[in-house]
Design brief:
alpha+beta, two-stranded antiparallel ribbon
Length: 401
């Protein structure tokens, strides 16, 4: 029987890239992931290996030193990396979103300055929308930028930055009143700033502080942080695209491809959970036979495998739609919603198959059980995805009466 989640129609180059990544995951990530996760240790050796493979520049155009690959290729690589350890895929994802936003919306000077070093992995990216009080309501952003000569002065507190400490470039979304009078719709008065900083914690540049890592239930290893701006001065040439008021649209474009990425991560974690469950079911014996021979377990494995296949198919469809140049917010929302929900269910079923041992930190499924919930909220909760899906469906199926 073939492996689950195969993708038809890939080129020889895509297959070679995926084979290389899969081999790296099996040899360099899976054997050490649980130990590093328990220590909440940043996987520097793994990140260095991904840098050597060129994955930090996978979708950056060749003219800037990247590989110029498609979103589909990238998503399939992320799926493999998440199968090894979801935290590593998070390190790549935030970097990728910033590079994508620069490629799509940056000025030529910004592209020339940042993209070659991002492709090489010498600059690591993070992006920042959320704040402590706003959750999914992006319009409630309170961080502000005020024009002062040829600079802007930024003040406010941001939350939930993946790569907040290890990054050296952060795309930060704030409100900017310049040119946007009182009463302007909130989403038309937001601007994305490209903030360069030193990696690390504490004051990483004048006016900018990264307090430290947030202690999390799962998704460990990768640093998740706050970001505090107190009189942070940014030159005008670091407004993404060179024009204020476009930040909301730029961020939403980045999040849209990020949702395909989160779907891919859900697929990867679900695949690994299935692998662990089907393997354990053939080793564990009860009532004189392997539990895989009991009909109840076979039903569970059948459901798990079907969910893995369905989520993978929707993720691939969403990536291919975006690569074709078409609008894909409906497909990306569906893929992210289904893959994250199915991931949670497949992981829980694998956990149940392990019985009491699934509760032990000696078994890998315990780590996956703590990691899967993050996918339910990352890049928009299930409720946000359903709002997006519902609105788009009403556009497509508008009642004619």
């Amino acid at each position: 029987m073939a492996r689950l989640a195969q993708t038809a129609g890939l080129t020889d180059v895509q297959q070679e890239i995926l084979s290389t990544v899969r081999d790296f995951v099996d040899k360099e990530i899976i054997p050490v992931a649980t130990e590093l996760e328990h220590r909440d240790e940043y996987p520097q050796q793994i990140v260095d290996g991904l840098k050597e493979l060129g994955l930090f520049g996978l979708m950056i155009p060749e003219e800037y030193g990247g590989l110029g690959e498609s979103l589909l290729t990238y998503a399939l690589c992320v799926e493999e990396i998440a199968r090894g350890w979801m935290s590593v895929s998070g390190i790549i994802n935030t970097h990728f979103i910033v590079a994508y936003m620069l490629k799509q919306h940056g000025t030529q000077e910004q592209k020339d300055h940042f993209l070659p070093r991002m492709a090489a992995g010498d600059i690591r990216g993070a992006f920042s929308m959320s704040e402590p009080a706003l959750g999914s309501d992006v319009s409630a952003i309170s961080s502000k930028a005020v024009k002062d000569g040829e600079e802007y002065v930024l003040n406010g507190q941001k939350m939930w930055l993946t790569n907040g400490g290890t990054s050296s470039l952060v795309a930060v979304l704030v409100k900017s009143d310049e040119g946007h009078p009182e009463g302007t719709a909130p989403h038309k008065s937001m601007t994305t700033f490209l903030v360069e900083k030193e990696p690390g914690f504490g004051e990483v540049r004048p006016g900018l502080t990264i307090p430290g890592k947030i202690d999390k239930m799962g998704y460990k290893g990768v640093d998740t942080t706050e970001l505090i701006m107190d009189g942070l001065r940014i030159p005008a040439n670091r407004v993404l695209g060179g024009v204020t008021g476009r930040g909301f649209y730029q961020m939403m474009d980045g999040v849209e491809v990020g949702r395909v990425n989160v779907a891919a991560r859900g697929c990867g974690v679900a695949q690994r959970a299935f692998e662990l469950g089907v393997s354990y079911a053939q080793q564990r014996h009860t009532f004189g036979k392997a539990i895989a021979q009991h009909q109840a377990i076979q039903f569970k494995l059948a459901e798990m495998a079907t969910k893995v296949e369905a989520a993978h198919a929707m993720m691939v469809n969403a990536a291919r739609k975006k690569d074709s140049g078409e609008r894909n917010d409906l497909e990306a929302g569906m893929a992210k919603y289904l893959a994250s929900e199915y991931c949670k269910e497949v992981v829980e079923d694998a956990f149940r198959i392990h019985g009491g041992y699934g509760f032990s930190k000696e078994y890998e499924i315990e780590r996956l059980y703590r990691e899967a919930p993050m996918l339910l909220i990352g890049e928009g909760t299930a409720e946000i995805q359903k709002m997006i899906i519902g609105r788009r469906l009403l556009e497509e199926y508008r009642f004619q009466g």
